[in-house]
Amino acid sequence: MIKQDLIQRIVDRTGLPRTKAEAAVDTIFDGMKRALAQGDRIELRGFGVFTVKPRKTGIGRNPRTGAEVSIEPGKAVRFKPGKELQALPN
Fold first, then answer.
1. What is the per-residue pLDDT for 39?
2. How high is the mean pLDDT in each 10-residue block of the chain (90 residues)?
3. Rg (CA), the chain
4. What is the value of pTM for the model shown?
5. Are 82 and 48 a contacting pair, CB within 8 Å?
6. Rounded Cα distance, 53 and 74, in Å
7. Which of 8, 71, 75, 82 could form a disulfide with 58 if both were Cys (CB 3.0 to 4.6 A apart)?
8. Alpha-carbon distance 24 to 87, whole Å?
9. pLDDT at 32
C-alpha cells in the first residue's frame, strides 16, 4: 500500500473530498516526522510503536572493490508491532 492507496481508502470510507483526505494524511505524516525528528516515541494502540534509536559507527565494505568504508553514526527509526497486529493471520 502506498500513500495514494491510503488516501483513496479514506475517500471511499468517509466520502470526504480527495483534497481534504490528502491534507489529513499529510498532516498525520508531518506530525509523525516532527515527533521522530525530536526523538519522541509514537505509540498507536493496537498497531505498534515507532522509536528512534542511535546507530553506532561501523565499518562496511564496498561490494565492487572490497575496500573498507567507514559508516558514520546516525539515527534509525524502529517499529515494534503491537499485539493485535501480530495476531493477524498472514
1. 93
2. 96 97 97 96 96 93 93 94 91
3. 19
4. 0.77
5. yes
6. 9
7. 71
8. 28
9. 97
